[in-house]
Amino acid sequence: MAEAIRLTYEISPDDFTRAGEASSDVKKKLKSLGVPPEAVRKVSIAMYEGEINMVIHAKGGLITVEISPDQILMILADKGPGIPDIDQAMQAGWSTAPNEIRSLGFGAGMGLPNMKKYTDEMTIDTVIGKGTTITMIVKI
Amino acid sequence: MKVQDLIDKQIFHVVNSGDDTGREITGVFCCDLLSIAMGKAPADSAWVTVMGNINTIAVATLADVSCVIMAEGAALDEVARAKAKQQGVAVLATEEPVFDAALKIYQELHG
Ligand SMILES: Nc1ncnc2c1ncn2[C@@H]1O[C@H](COP(=O)(O)OP(=O)(O)OP(=O)(O)O)[C@@H](O)[C@H]1O
Ligand SMILES: [Mg+2]
């Protein structure tokens, strides 16, 4: 793996039956590339939480994954409402998920904390009314 | 204990035996909230839950648990069942409450 491998996924809004497919695909590819299981698991968890958030809280978007020999870079860009208070959103337990979403098991307010916990670097760029871009790196 | 060993004990019904019944189960974890399970369920654990939609199967795959145990007689819905087959996730089921189901696995693991 000399050069970086680049994967892109369109995430469609409000489709819970497909949510998680991009993350599952990345997991499969990382496994087959021989990336260590611990790194694969971190990427899988962080990317799934981000992917699901794009489905629930934004209007879908685009995920780009770049696999290099020493790290995996994930960029999750949506055109949703943006996050008014990032510190609050990052708090364990904070959630604005509506009831019908909670009845599916979401809404613990642990998605963003999980993304932080399972990545080595994470930055959130958000503009109210324009969208959110979350960049995450897992080192191999 | 392997997934196959747990199946052979006939404590639980088999909903889907999955792709790798030779996989080790090294612990047990209970929670219905998906992102708590995602963040806290150890890899290779048996995950006991009553939440049976497609997201359960996605979390099971990505958090890399050994199997899912549906407790309280909770069912996997049709879409989730198809997904479990497709992804090769082992799913077992029981009428028993979450704690009792988890305790049985714990006892099998720790004697
Ligand atoms: N991409 C996004 N666009 C807009 N708001 C977001 C986005 N991601 C997260 N948020 C906001 O941050 C809050 C916290 O997100 P987090 O993922 O931690 O919890 P949650 O999605 O509500 O529940 P869960 O525990 O199921 O992930 C959300 O409830 C939502 O208000
Ligand atoms: Mg979330």
Structure description:
The complex is a heterodimer of chains A (140) and B (111). Chain A has 140 residues and is of the alpha+beta class. Chain A has one domain (5-139): Heat Shock Protein 90 (2-Layer Sandwich). Chain A contains five helices and five strands; from the N terminus they run E-H-H-E-E-H-H-H-E-E. Chain A has a five-stranded antiparallel beta sheet, with helices on one face. The longest helix of chain A has 20 residues, at 37-56. The radius of gyration of chain A is 14 Å and the shape is globular. The two termini of chain A are 13 Å apart. With 111 residues, chain B is of the alpha/beta class. Chain B has one domain (3-110): Udp-n-acetylmuramoylalanyl-d-glutamate--2,6- Diaminopimelate Ligase, Chain: A, domain 1, CATH 3.40.1390.20. In chain B, 41% of the residues lie in helices and 18% in strands. Chain B has five helices and five strands. Chain B has a five-stranded mixed beta sheet with strand order 1-5-4-3-2, with helices on both faces. In chain B, helix 2 links the parallel strand 2 and strand 3. The longest helix of chain B is centred in the C-terminal third of the chain and has 13 residues, at 98-110. Chain B is globular and about 35 Å long. The A-B interface holds A 16-17, 19-20, 23-24, 27, 37, 41, 44-45, 48-49, 52, 104-111, 113-114, 117-118 and B 32-36, 38-39, 43, 51, 53-56, 58-59, 61-64, 79, 87. Bound molecules: adenosine-5'-triphosphate and magnesium ion.
